[in-house]
Design a protein that fits this description.
- The complex is a heterodimer of chains A (about 700) and B (about 210).
- With about 700 residues, chain A is mainly beta.
- In chain A, about 5% of the residues lie in helices and about 70% in strands.
- Chain A has six helices and 28 strands.
- Chain A starts with a helix and ends with a strand.
- Chain B is α+β, with helices and mostly antiparallel strands and about 210 residues long.
- Chain B is globular and about 75 Å long.
- The chains are: A mainly beta (about 700), B alpha+beta (about 210).
- At the A-B interface, strand 6, strand 14, strand 15, strand 16 and strand 17 of A face helix 1, helix 3, helix 4, strand 3 and strand 4 of B.
Amino acid sequence: MKAFLDRTTAPFLALAVASALVFVLAAAAPAPAMAQDFEDAEDDTTGAAADSLSNAEMLRLAALEAEAVSGDPLGPFWQGMTNKPKAGVRSNVRQYSYYGENVTNVNFREGSFNNTSSYSWEEYRKQDKTLEKRTDQFSYNAGRLFPFVTSITGNWDWSEDLTTNTAGFTNLSKRDSKNINLSASKTKFQTGAFTNTLKADARVDDQKSVNQGQRNDFSEGSLSGGLQSGTALSEGVTVAGRYFAKSTSGDRSLGNSTSPSSASADSAGFGVYFDRSFGTGRVAVTRSNFDKKYLDFKKNSNGLIDTVGLDDQDKVVEELETRDAVSVEFEHTLQLRRMKLITKASRSTDNQDYRVSGVGLKEREQDQFDVTWGFGVGRDSLALSYKFLWKWDDQRIKGATLNRGRQYTKSRNYDLTWMRPLIGGTRMTFKYHEGLTQDIAEKVHNQNDKDRLQTDVSLRLDRDWQQKFKTSMIFSYKQGQDLSIRESRSSNNNVKDSYEISPGFLWTLAPWLTLDQSYQVFIQYTDYVYSDLESVNRDDNYNKRGNLTTKVTIKPTRRLDLVVRNDYNRRFNATRVVTDAAGNSYYHKDQIQTISKIDFGMTFRVAPGVTLESATYQTEDVKDTFGARDRTTTTRSGEVWVGTKVNKRWGKTRPLELSATVKKYNAYGPAVTATSADYWEADVWMKWEF
Amino acid sequence: MTRSAPRILHPAALLVALLVALAALSGCLFEPRDPAPPSTSSIQYLPKTSAANVWANLERSLVNTHAFGWEDNVVPEGGTPFIYIPDSQAADQFPGVFDGWNRTKEVAFINRLYNSDVTITAKLKEDDFVPPDDSGGEVQWEGVVYDVSVTSKTDGSTTRYRGRAIITFSVEGNFWYITRWEDQFGEGDPDNPDQILPTMGVLRGTFGSK
């Protein structure tokens, strides 16, 4: 333990001294108003600064502070305790579960204690598997006992998963994990002109687990702390900086090997935040890095475990992983009456290196630029956006003298949305999208260079006809070009053109009766770019699908709802056989498929809190296949379920609550297996509060 | 008395914006590169008119390390969302990686795998597996045992993945797609039955967490 403390605390000495100094200053300083716009500094989080004080973390700290000062400062020391035991059972097509939990809350004059204990046992229906879980989570906050928010949280997770495969081999996956965390923080306190947030944590983790006979245990302690400070340079301009560090030390066991483990990480960030006449925005820079020493299985150049043929002592290695990341972000929003222009730009880079793994060194870089322009003129409103993403990763495989070559991904997207009210109650929405994504392998280290160009155009018209009748019409066109660039991959290059027309209406015939009907036609042409070459055995094709959906909703009484729905769809697949001199294409019918499905649903409110529900469907699927021998196949499937929902609550001071949903399913059809042909779906629980 | 807000943009600005939009409509904004004509025979994908064809296409995509074949058979955005559920071993090994695993993550995984200089042998179902007939708009295959071996061209090492899964296929628009892949557990190595092989969840976790 002494060795652990020596290793862990050394890098934190300076931080601890700085923290103590800040606490002293915080206690001594009065509490003037916060520097304006400091909240914006909280957004200064990037992927590179994942360990730093994130926005969510800051909000959590602020919530803890609010919770800490919410008690009654003049009341008795003991302010009450509540318990909420709950027990239930669940069942569905996949598994049965039995569960129970108890939530305890204890409130003191200063602070509170919460504890949640739970237990569950699951048995799977479609495989030989059981899963048992036990958990306990507690938290204590010290209220205003200290000048900063102090809390202790603890978790215990225990699970045992027994799975038997088809060969009869049973695997035990067992985990027993415990951790306790002491946290102290103070948000938005003033020291002179600076507004600060300070946080420090001490944590101990202990895990024992086994899977496929291999143990994976660790016992580690960690210390972490961070400080964020900001000040207003002038009206509407704030600068903020932050620093966060974490050190971990302990022991790890993997397989038959045991070794000390350690990790250290830190991140630093700086940002300028503005809210002036030229708009609002920020510029932020963050740098973060870590190094971790741990036991790992031997891995190949792709990061896959590669222990085949190795002796046990060679399967596990002492790994050292290091990572350095930098990110720069710019964001600006300009609002002028009905015009808004948002610009975002960022660059992030990171290097990740392994001492032993065959992966070696990985380098990554990503540039992103987004601009969105929205404005209104008269009754029209328009939004235009352009998004650009360029990223690459490179690798120097362990032992290699040269890099593999960069793998680029380049993506550009343009979007336009135009909305305009037309005559009467008619509204028009027009959308256009064009996007190009390219994969490029520098030095042709693979053959997978490809481009995908996607174009989407849609026009939607909606109209309300005096409340009782609503209509809609959608016209849509999509084109997708899938193009492999290298000759070894380009034989399947194709262009797909898709058309969709979807008229529909909703007619409220009476307050208790509505009719909803829509019709959709999808047509897709697929043209293979090189289908005329003899070496390319691909035929262009044509596919069409019509779908008519009719839904009738009836509410004959206030307690009864009925829904009848029919989906009728017909699909047609054909292959192009010849194109004449005039360019007309002729297709051969391959298959016609007709699917008709009818659903009926009913809900009846028997009494307050008690509902009877039922539904059924029947499907008929007729498939005609044309070829050397024409063939017709007909399949039928269906399902019926009947169920009840009950929600009851008794008592006011010590309420007892019952919730029960029970449904019985029966199904038939070619894809229905023994486990899904006849089963119960249920969720029944009872909760008491005292 | 009310006063209408002064116009800050002349209708001409709207006209300009519409012209920009029309320029885009002509499809001239972005231009893909010119591909090289194919030198080899084509990878023969099957029409996605049945669940069995979709599953066969995924196998051909793996064997040819051809990403389009995988992307084209995973349900596109806008329809039933694609879901991957790992087995316990993969979930334990890669905590958090599979949360919200959707089409975007699946496509990123397959591209990273194929771009990592590997050769793959794959058999996505056993010879005696009889899939149920497609009926209606969705079909579920239970007890699919797949066998995939990934060999690194760089160091020659081979890793084998063999698992049992529940696969769901759905009709979207005109075609069938895979919409759900649920790994149940790793199966034994046929060459060494005492050795339990990992599922493709471990493969997804390795490339999905990069």
